[in-house]
Design brief:
The structure is a single chain. This protein is mainly α and about 220 residues long. The chain has a single domain, classed as Ferritin (Up-down Bundle). Helix 1 packs antiparallel against helix 6. It is globular and about 50 Å long. Bound molecules: fe (ii) ion (2 copies). The site of one fe (ii) ion has 5 residues, from helix 3 and helix 4.
C-alpha cells in the first residue's frame, strides 16, 4: 500500500511538472491527459507506431546531414549525426519494448499527420531547407509534448520511465532544429514561418483520428 501511495505521489509530481514543462512549449494546441490514457489502451500498437516515428526521425537526420546551407557550415554534419544517433537509439529501445510485449515491426507505416506536415514544405530554392528544419522541429516539439503526457498517464512504470526519458531527448532535438533554422535564414523570416507552421500543425492535429498512435487525435 505504501509503495502504491509512493507511485501515486510520484505520478502526481510528474504530472504537475509535465504541465509546467509543456506550458512553455510553443504549440498552439494542448494535448489533454485523457489522450494519454486512451492512447495507452493498446500499448503494443502504440509502440509499433512509435518505432516507425523513430525510424523516420533517424532517416530524416541522415538525409539533412548532407544538406548544409552554402559552401560549408561548421558543425552541421556533427549535429545531424548526433540527432540520427539519438533517434537510432530510441528506435532500438522502442523495438526492444515492442518485441518483449509480443509485437513486431511491420514493413510499412502511414502517418496522415506527417504527410500533411510535409505538404507545408515549399519545394525547390532556399525555402525548402528552412521549411524542412521547421517541420522537423514541429514533429519533435509535438512528440516531446506527447511523451510528457504519456509519461504522466502510464501506470506501467517501465513505459512511464521510457516516455519520460524521450521527453527530455526530443525537447533537445526541437531546440536543435530551431537553432539550425536560424542559421539558414534571418530570424524575422524564421519567426514568421515558425508561427505559420505552428498554427498549421494545430489544425492538422485537430483533424487526426483518435487511436493508439503517437500523433493520433483527441477523441
Ligand atoms: Fe526520438
Ligand atoms: Fe527526436
Amino acid at each position: 500500500m505504501a509503495g502504491r501511495e509512493t507511485h501515486k505521489n510520484g505520478s502526481k509530481y510528474w504530472r504537475d511538472s509535465v504541465n509546467k514543462g509543456t506550458e512553455t512549449l510553443p504549440l498552439h494546441s494542448v494535448t489533454p491527459f485523457e489522450w494519454g490514457r486512451a492512447a495507452l489502451a493498446d500499448p503494443v500498437a502504440l509502440l509499433a507506431d512509435h518505432a516507425f516515428l523513430e525510424k523516420k526521425a533517424a532517416a530524416n537526420a541522415l538525409d539533412l546531414m548532407t544538406r548544409w546551407p552554402g559552401e560549408w557550415t561548421p558543425g552541421w554534419v556533427e549535429t545531424m549525426t548526433g540527432v540520427a544517433r539519438d533517434e537510432a537509439s530510441h528506435l532500438s529501445q522502442t523495438v526492444r519494448l515492442l518485441t518483449r510485449r509480443g509485437g513486431r515491426m511491420e514493413r510499412g507505416h502511414r502517418s496522415s499527420y506527417a504527410k500533411a506536415l510535409r505538404l507545408l514544405v515549399r519545394k525547390g530554392g532556399e525555402d525548402e531547407l528552412l521549411d524542412r528544419l521547421l517541420v522537423s522541429a514541429l514533429i519533435e516539439v509535438r512528440s516531446c509534448e506527447r511523451f510528457a503526457v504519456l509519461a504522466a498517464a502510464a501506470e506501467d512504470s517501465e513505459l512511464a520511465l521510457f516516455y519520460k526519458t524521450l521527453f527530455s531527448s526530443e525537447m533537445g532535438h526541437y531546440k536543435v532544429f530551431l537553432r539550425l533554422a536560424n542559421q539558414v535564414a534571418p530570424s524575422e523570416i524564421v519567426e514568421a514561418r515558425w508561427q505559420y507552421m505552428l498554427a498549421a500543425e494545430a489544425r492538422i492535429m485537430e483533424q487526426q483520428a483518435p487511436g493508439s498512435r503517437i500523433h493520433s487525435g483527441v477523441s
